[in-house]
């Protein structure tokens, strides 16, 4: 067994010094989350519309969201691998750097009127989402026992600011871009580029000392993390599977995260279509989705505190219960039942938040320190793949059957998962 060399640039710290560094880490990650969240929300809100204009096809416009999700999935493991080798700062810098490059390609693609090139840019644009997901794990590296869920939840909560503000900035950014001589429709992506550049600078300059490297340097010599084979500490997919085989709790957390995200994306993605069939105007659909986003993020600190207080598995079971209630409420609502659908979507967001926060904290604590970036990267990869698959499957189900059948399928899925979590708990 070869010991991983400890970063000699970081002197060991104890007690209060670690707490000071952790507070700084949370502040830096929060600022980066806010700025990158603005970039993601602006680009995501405008991308489908621009692709439709460039291609002249509504069907092709749907590939815009798919490209971003695909990019987040593809960049999850490279981000984790970089973090495993050189620390969280390097991993997050890679993710946001790819997003910045994606914005540049997108601006060029719009200028030359090429929708295939724009889709390629949007794949790299997904790096911002990969970085956002990785940031929540970065918040737990230096968390004291019993506090990782609430620290993680705080970083998740700060995503609310960017997610809410971003879409409202798309149109002003377009007008500003035109006034500055940019091609039409490039303004929002120029704003995203600026937001990602700020996030990248905040991470590179502010995330010092690196939380993961510092956690390794102060880890007890007898801890499992100090004696893992060097070849396995590089964030590889093989490393993640090996670690999961030895950590049943991590497997439960991984399944809970994947199921929660699949349930949320599948119902959320088809709700605008369902309400549109009932004649709901766009502003009503926008309010329903805003309530859903509020459910996803606003209660994050409370959910994090609860997960630290009563345990991860109980909060995961609560999350499955909320997702079940959401599926029943939304699934049994007719196209005109805006109030009932709104309540269902709010519960859907809260259930997702329980799964993400409690599951992520449980996953991080269940594996040794040196294996965490690899397992966390695998978690984000599966989460994005399941989300994309869920959206596609939801479209097929609603198109062939109905929105109510989709609600039934989701209800069965989360019920089985909740029962499995209860039976498998040790």
Could you describe the 3D structure shown?
There is one protein chain. 57% of the residues are buried. The protein has 426 residues and is mainly α. The protein has helices at 16-55, 58-61, 63-86, 88-111, 115-125, 127-138, 148-179, 187-206, 211-218, 237-245, 248-277, 282-297, 300-310, 312-331, 338-366, 372-400, 403-424. Helix 3 runs antiparallel to helix 4. It is built from 17 helices and no strands. It has 2 domains: 13-211, MFS general substrate transporter like domains (Growth Hormone, Chain: A, Up-down Bundle); 236-423, Growth Hormone, Chain: A, CATH 1.20.1250.20. The chain is globular. Residues 1-12 and 221-235 have low confidence and may be disordered. Its main location: membrane. Residues 248-426 form the Major facilitator superfamily (MFS) profile domain. One of its GO terms (cellular component) is plasma membrane. It is a multi-pass membrane protein. It is found in: Cell membrane.
Short description:
This protein is an all-alpha fold and 426 residues long.
Write the layout of secondary structure elements.
Blueprint: H1 16-55, H2 58-61, H3 63-86, H4 88-111, H5 115-125, H6 127-138, H7 148-179, H8 187-206, H9 211-218, H10 237-245, H11 248-277, H12 282-297, H13 300-310, H14 312-331, H15 338-366, H16 372-400, H17 403-424
Helix pairs in contact: 1-3, 1-5, 1-6, 1-7, 1-8, 3-4, 3-5, 3-6, 3-16, 4-5, 4-6, 4-8, 6-7, 6-16, 7-8, 7-12, 7-13, 7-15, 10-16, 11-12, 11-14, 11-15, 11-16, 11-17, 12-15, 13-14, 13-15, 14-15, 14-17, 16-17
């Amino acid at each position: 067994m070869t010991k991983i060399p400890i970063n000699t640039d970081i002197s060991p710290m104890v007690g209060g010094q670690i707490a000071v560094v952790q507070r700084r880490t949370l502040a830096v990650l929060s600022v980066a989350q806010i700025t990158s969240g603005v970039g993601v929300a602006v680009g995501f809100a405008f991308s489908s519309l621009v692709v439709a204009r460039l291609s002249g096809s509504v069907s092709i416009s749907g590939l815009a969201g798919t490209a971003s999700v695909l990019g987040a999935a593809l960049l999850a493991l490279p981000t984790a691998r970089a973090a495993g080798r050189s620390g969280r700062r390097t991993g997050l810098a890679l993710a946001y750097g790819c997003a910045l490059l994606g914005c540049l390609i997108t601006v060029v693609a719009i200028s030359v009127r090429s929708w295939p090139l724009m889709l390629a840019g949007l794949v790299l644009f997904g790096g911002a989402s990969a970085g956002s997901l990785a940031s929540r794990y970065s918040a737990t590296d230096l968390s004291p026992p019993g506090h990782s869920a609430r620290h993680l939840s705080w970083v998740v909560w700060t995503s609310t600011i960017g997610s809410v503000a971003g879409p409202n900035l798309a149109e002003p950014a377009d007008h500003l871009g035109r006034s500055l001589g940019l091609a039409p429709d490039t303004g929002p992506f120029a704003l995203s580029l600026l937001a990602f550049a700020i996030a990248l600078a905040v991470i590179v300059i502010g995330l010092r000392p690196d939380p993961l490297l510092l956690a390794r340097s102060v880890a007890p010599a007898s801890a499992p993390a100090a004696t893992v084979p060097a070849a396995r500490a590089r964030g590889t997919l093989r490393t993640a599977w090996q670690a999961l085989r030895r950590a049943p709790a991590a497997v439960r957390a991984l399944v809970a995260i994947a199921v929660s995200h699949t349930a949320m994306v599948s119902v959320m993605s088809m709700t605008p279509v369902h309400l549109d069939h009932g004649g709901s105007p766009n502003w009503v659909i926008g309010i329903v989705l805003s309530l859903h986003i509020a459910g996803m993020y606003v209660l994050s600190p409370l959910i994090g505190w609860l997960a630290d207080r009563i345990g991860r598995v109980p909060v995961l079971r609560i999350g499955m219960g909320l997702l079940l209630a959401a599926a029943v409420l939304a699934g049994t609502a007719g196209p005109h039942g805006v109030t009932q659908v709104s309540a269902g979507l709010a519960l859907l967001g809260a259930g997702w938040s329980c799964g993400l926060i409690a599951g992520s904290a449980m996953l991080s604590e269940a594996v040794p320190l040196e294996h965490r970036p690899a397992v966390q990267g695998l978690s984000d990869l599966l989460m994005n793949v399941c989300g994309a698959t869920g959206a596609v499957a939801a479209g097929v189900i609603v198109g062939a059957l109905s929105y109510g059948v989709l609600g039934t399928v989701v209800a069965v899925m989360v019920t089985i998962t909740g029962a499995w979590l209860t039976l498998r708990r040790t």
